[in-house]
Every structure is written in C-alpha cells, then in structure tokens.
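Chain entry —
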Amino acid sequence: MKKKLLIAAVAVILIILISYIGFWKYYRIENPETTNGNISSKTTMYVNPNLNTVDIGETFSVSVEISNVINLCGYDFKLSYDSTSLNITSLEITTIFGDATQIVKEDVNATLQRVWIAVISMPLTPLNGSYVLVKITFKAISEGDSSLVLYDTKLGDNEAQPISHKTTNGQVTVTSQSTETTLGYVNPPLTDITQTGTTIYVSPAVVNSSVGEYFLIYINVSDVVDLYGWEFKLGWNSSLLEVVSVEEGDFLRSGGDTFFTEKINNTAGYVYLACTLLGNVPGVSGNGGLAIIKFYVKAPGECLLDLYDTKLGDSLAQPILHTANDGYGYFAEASTGGRDQPPMPL
C-alpha cells in the first residue's frame, strides 16, 4: 500500500512539473456543456479580485484561488504582471494541505515579470472544494495598466491525472488619482488587457452600457502561428444580458474557405462557437478577429464575460498553447429609450 502511494505521489509531482496540454483536432465540433447561470460549474483557477484600480504609491492585495476542485493533490502556475507599474512587496502561500504542504517552486522574477508557484501534497492529501492558494501584495509604482495573467496552469489529482480546469485573469489600473462614476464603482480601464504569448481575449476588456442598449464584443486572437481551427464558450449573467446575433470574424477566413458553427443558449447564459479552415491549406498567423457577438442589455448590474473552454489548433491537428482573457461589463439603468430601439447594425 505504501509503495502504491509513493508511486502515485511521484506521478503527481511529474504532472505538476511537466507541461501538458490535451490533444485537440481542428475539425472536432463538440456540444457545449450545460452551465448553471453565467458561470460554468467546473474547476476554475482565478485572480480575486479580477479588477483593481489604485493610486500611485498605494498597496493592494490579490489572491489566486481555486473553486470546485475534486481530489486536488498539487498545483503549478505562473502569473504575469507589469513590473513597470507594479512591485511585489510580499507573497504568502496558503498551506491548504496542512502539514503535507510541500512548496516545490516559489519564485518572483521582476525581470521576467512573473510569479511562479508550485505546491504538492506529500504524503497525498486530496482536497475537494474551493481554496485560496496564494496571496500577493503589490505596490503601485507608476501610472498605467497591468494584466494579471494566469498561464502554464496545472492541477494534479490523487491518481496522478491532470485536472481539467479553466482560468480567469485579472487587471490593474494605476492612476494618479481615483475617479468614480455615478454608479459608485471605480472606473476600470477601457483598454484591452496586455497580451502575453498567444492569447484569445475579449475586446473591449471592459464594457459600459445601459439597459435597452446593444453592444458588440469581439473575440480576438494575438501572436498566433499556423491557426487552422478554434472553438470557445462565452458565458454571462443571463438575467442581465442576452445575445442577439453572432458572426464569424475575418481572421481565419483570410486563409481560405471555413466552416463556422454556433449555439446560443440565452437561458443558461452562454454561447458556443467553433470554426475551422477547409482543405489542405496552411493555417493563419498573426493577430485578428475570430468572432463578433452582439448583446442586448436587459437589466442593470455587472457581470463577467467569461471566456472558457478555449481551444486553438494548427494545420497538423496539434493544440496551440495559449492564454484566455475574460471581459467584464457594467450596466446602468436606462435614461431614455428601451427595447423598442432599432437594432444596432453589425
């Protein structure tokens, strides 16, 4: 029995220390999973809070957290940040496995602009539920925007198997002074999150709209090489928003004929989109738009525009490693007009 546990523990360490990514063929079109409201019920690693606005000289803290995990025995992630705007003053790893917590990696590198954390349970002490993994305290040192991007994220279970999960990134705006809107929240930046490597992301990163209005969200990709196919889901709070229409972007079809499919579920609050090139042609490289999604605002509030289950594949049917950046929306009460407004043309 002890020998089996030792073998399983070693395998967990290998999972945590060696990168992995699931095989995905560009021509596979899957049915989207059922979601509960606007957030998928599966395991998520995320930055909390995901939006921060601070003044120069101010200190603030964020946590990297995990939710809805089953049989967790180890984790490994990197978090990028802009060291020209932010300076890390302290980092605290939570001992979620108790006395079995073993820190494999704890590295803050301002030159590479990233934090690298890896932790395992030794002996194996599998956990279920939601946990705070790490608390990081920053000091704002200069004005600007900084994304907090989780990447190279890995989770391992008690059977030495990877745990499927999604990630949600964060964003920080450093200002010379705070400004507030009539809704009472601090204004987030109206610019896209800075990308790190190949990235699929929501643009604009932050939306401000009012009840009765329509707005467009663009799902874009940056710094990609040989993209032959893609798929993703986008979730939202269905009590606030509904999707009116979706349209394929022009990036992939610049490389040839494409097949595009869609499924909109306004009740559950998600859309599933997928697209692939057709025939023996090379993939497309560079930056561009994958899809355009048109929303209607039904009620005031705020919610995540949750980009998840993202997959990119190349012309050899191999997965393309990437990060995914969510968006966020703030929706005010309507001043005039309403549902009878004519649709905004795409």
